Amino acid sequence: MSVNKCDQPIGVFDSGVGGLTVLRALQDLLPHENFLYLGDTARVPYGTKSAESVIKYALQAGGALVREGIKMLVVACNTASAVSIDSLTAAYNPLPVVGVVKPGAEAACLASKNGKIAVIATESTVKGGAYQGTICSMHSSAKIIAKACPLFVGLAEEGWTEGEIVEAIAARYLKPLFAEFGKEGPDTLVLGCTHFPVLRGAIAKVAGDKITLVDSAETTANTVKRILTELSLINSSDAAGRLSFLATDSAERFAAVGSAFLGVEINSEDVRSIDL
Amino acid sequence: MSVNKCDQPIGVFDSGVGGLTVLRALQDLLPHENFLYLGDTARVPYGTKSAESVIKYALQAGGALVREGIKMLVVACNTASAVSIDSLTAAYNPLPVVGVVKPGAEAACLASKNGKIAVIATESTVKGGAYQGTICSMHSSAKIIAKACPLFVGLAEEGWTEGEIVEAIAARYLKPLFAEFGKEGPDTLVLGCTHFPVLRGAIAKVAGDKITLVDSAETTANTVKRILTELSLINSSDAAGRLSFLATDSAERFAAVGSAFLGVEINSEDVRSIDL
């Protein structure tokens, strides 16, 4: 493998800004890697759209990143991972393609002792059944119930991340979900949408201290590191990695909304607008 | 004008299903007209996207309706009306193009006695300033304050239209908005997004009985009737008008979510999927 190849960025794709929580975990674990993040902000959200539309959009976004020259593609969007990972893997073979669903499912199986796992996600992710199927394939006796919580996305984007309103909404979504498991409730709750970790405090308060919250950002970063190592694609540079952004809607809005998700200020001059 | 022309449908365009509240008002007033409704459900919502993207999408949607053969274009989406009405009018001249912002602004000016008018809408509609500008041009001494209420869209789509949660969210948006007017508050509140009339009960409860709620569905229908009459384009048939739908995302989802907004069941077989 040439030095040049290792120096290529890792492409990270999301429907909008939510995947920046995954990018943050990737940067923490792999500080010398270069990253090129694409947010399809002109067509966000994917979570309420059909599988056909999401696959089409994912292939357009993946294609744009591949044309920029990337050494790996990370699908940092649960909905896109859930419905389009096979199409993306086939389209860009032999490029390694990593989604967030499988690492999240693995983390849930590791965390759960009683095998009762609740999953909250977008409508499309729940309908696609990817979490349910992936967890089942790893832990065949697990009882998994998934529920769509679309208002959590709006709350995260509005910045209403704590207080009475978000707790009331969390209770309205989660209490009936937990009750569906019967007398002994779930011990694990998968945050199956990259927006949801922003509301972790309120969700944890409603879930109580007997339920472990799992999100896929950290486990996805571990998977990416393992695959880069196996393929000898780790960047050997000692310098801090470069970070660049592409957005399909305006650069200003991406920078303004995205900063809260990435945890550091994004300068709109570092964001390039593209048309897919 | 030939009989054939009058028989053509009125094209109604919205970013998704919210415009079906406008279609309902149009059907009530003009029961013999044929309507062709296009919901750009693959890219909904427009309200959080840049003006450039919204104009591009509106021209693609308008173009698709014009190619189907329509006698008038109604832009039943506040965001698209607010930012793209001039582009659409120029592109399809001499086709009459009617938006929802001007009729809504007119209704607000008629309703207000004290000239203090509050407007709630999506982020893009508020930022574009179309309501503020249009009301000002009709009522130069009016005091207008507009505020984005993006979570109302999610609540309407989730069907959480009444009860404590929606009232708490309405209070959090509206009370600071009303307070901005000073000691004597507004007497008129414009529901500047087609999703908001679905939450009218909860909004009215927070606003109290001194504030008149205005939405543009009915006034837009009156404007459409007036223009059709002036242009001798009224359909003289005595039969009930035909209704057909186009959606850019799946027909099934359009039918399922849209029925609540239209007020009657939509059969997914009456919805044709198109790509813009």
Describe the protein.
The structure is a homodimer of 276-residue chains. With 276 residues, chain A is of the alpha/beta class. Chain A folds into two domains: 3-99 and 218-273, Rossmann fold (3-Layer(aba) Sandwich); 102-216, Rossmann fold, CATH 3.40.50. Chain A is 48% helix and 16% strand. The first copy, chain A, is built from twelve helices and ten strands. In chain A, the strands form two sheets. In chain A, strands 4-3-1-2-9-10 form a six-stranded parallel beta sheet, sandwiched between helices. In chain A, strands 6-5-7-8 form a four-stranded parallel beta sheet, with helices on both faces. In chain A, helix 12 links the parallel strand 9 (243-247) and strand 10. In chain A, helix 2 (20-29) packs across helix 11 (216-230), helix 5 crosses helix 7 and helix 5 (101-111) packs across helix 11 (216-230). Chain A is globular and about 55 Å long. The two termini of chain A are 31 Å apart. The mean pLDDT of chain A is 95. At the A-B interface, helix 8 and helix 9 of A face helix 8 and helix 9 of B.
